[in-house]
Amino acid sequence: MNPELMQSGAKRLATYQQKIAQSPVVNTASGGSMSLGRPHQSGELDLVHGRILYLEDVSVSFDGFKAINKLSLDIAPGELRCVIGPNGAGKTTMMDIITGKTRPDEGIVYFGSTINLLRHTEPEIAAMGIGRKFQKPTVFEKLSVFENLELALKTHKDVRSSLFFRLDSEQSDRLDEVLHIIKLTGHVHQTAGNLSHGQKQWLEIGMLLMQEPRVLLLDEPVAGMTDEETERTAELLLQLKGKHCLIVVEHDMKFIEAISDTVTVLCDGAVLAQGPLAKVAADERVIESYLGR
What range does the domain containing 167 cover? Predict the structure, then answer.
C-alpha cells in the first residue's frame, strides 16, 4: 500500500477511535444495534479498525490485460467516496470484485475487519449488506412504485411465503420512510414504467435501501438526468451519507463537487491520486490522464 493510503488509514483509525470513546450506536445488517465502545460479538460487522471496506494489492487480468493492478482502498463506515477516472481505468471491475462478480488473481478484500469477501458468492455478499446499483435503472416497469419497494423487502422469497406475505407495521413504516427519502411519496401507486428517468433511478436506490445495506455502490447515478434531477440526486446521496457507506462512480464533475469529501482517481487499474476534489483536480497526473486542460 502506498504511503498516502497508509496515512489516510491512520487518520481514519484515529477518528474512529474517538467515536469509540463516545460509544455511539450503529445499526447492524440484521436491523439490530451495536455499540462501537464494546468488544465485537459474533454476528456483528466488526468495525473496530475504522474501516468498512478494505482492498489491498488487488489485481486481475483478462486475456493478458491487467484491468486492476495492485489496487488498494480503505473506506470508512458512513463515508461517501467518489471514484473517477478515464474509461478503462478499472472502476467497474473494482465494483465487480467487491460484489463477488469477479474474482481477483491476487490481493485481499475485506468487509469490516473479519469478513473476507473473496470467500463468498455474489448473493451472499448482497445478503451481508453490500448493494449495487448499475448505470441503467433496473426496476419492474409494469409494477407500481409501492410494489417495487415491497418486492425489495428483506423477506423469505419462497413461493409459500410470497403467496401469504403481508406487510407488518414495521415494514410498512420502513416503506413509507424510504418513499419519503427518495421523494416518491406522491407517486406510490404510479406504474414504474411511467416514471421519468431520474425517478426510476431514485426508485432503484429505494429498492436497495429496503434491503438495509451497509454499503451502496452506485455506478454513474446521474447519467442521463436533467439538471434538476441531478441536484435532487445529490441531495439524496448527502442525506444517505453517514447512515450508509456510499461509493459513487461518476463522470459528472459538477455532481462530484457537490457531494464529495474524498475523491479517488483510478488510472490503469490503480490509484493515481486521492484526496479532496480541489487537490486531485490540480494534480498534473490527473489532468494529463483524465481531466484535460
Answer: 138-211
Calpha distance 68→75 (Å, rounded): 18
**Residues 71 and 26 sit within 8 Å (Cβ to Cβ):** no
Residue 240: what pLDDT? 96
One domain, residues 185 and 260: no
Give the amino acid at 91.
K
The DSSP call for residue 244 is B
Q: What pLDDT is attached to residue 158?
A: 47
Sheet with 106-111: strands ordered across: 65-75, 53-62, 106-111, 115-116
* Cross-strand partners of 58: 71
Both 165 and 273 in one domain: the answer is: no
- State how far the Cα of 86 lies from the Cα of 47, in Å rounded to an integer: 32
Q: What are the beta bridge partners of residue 276? A: none
Measured in degrees and rounded to the nearest 5, phi and psi for residue 107 equal 110, 175
Q: From CA 66, how far away is CA 55, in angstroms rounded? A: 17
The CA-based angle 278-130-70, given to 5 degrees, is 55
**Residue 165 has what pLDDT?**
58
* Radius of gyration of the CA atoms of the chain, in A: 19
At 2, the amino acid letter reads N
Beta carbons within 10 angstroms of residue 284's beta carbon:
8
Is 159 within 8 Å of 202 (Cβ atoms)?
no
Show the low-confidence residues of the chain (pLDDT under 70).
1-43, 154-166, 292-293
Does the global pTM surpass 0.70?
yes
Q: Which residues, 6 or more positions from 190, have their beta carbon under 8 angstroms from its beta carbon?
A: 144, 145
- Residue 290 has a pLDDT of 87
Residue where a domain stops, chosen among 187, 211, 235: 211
Position 154 scores a pLDDT of 60
Helix, strand or coil for residue 68? strand
Is the distance from CB of 249 to CB of 91 less than 8 angstroms? yes
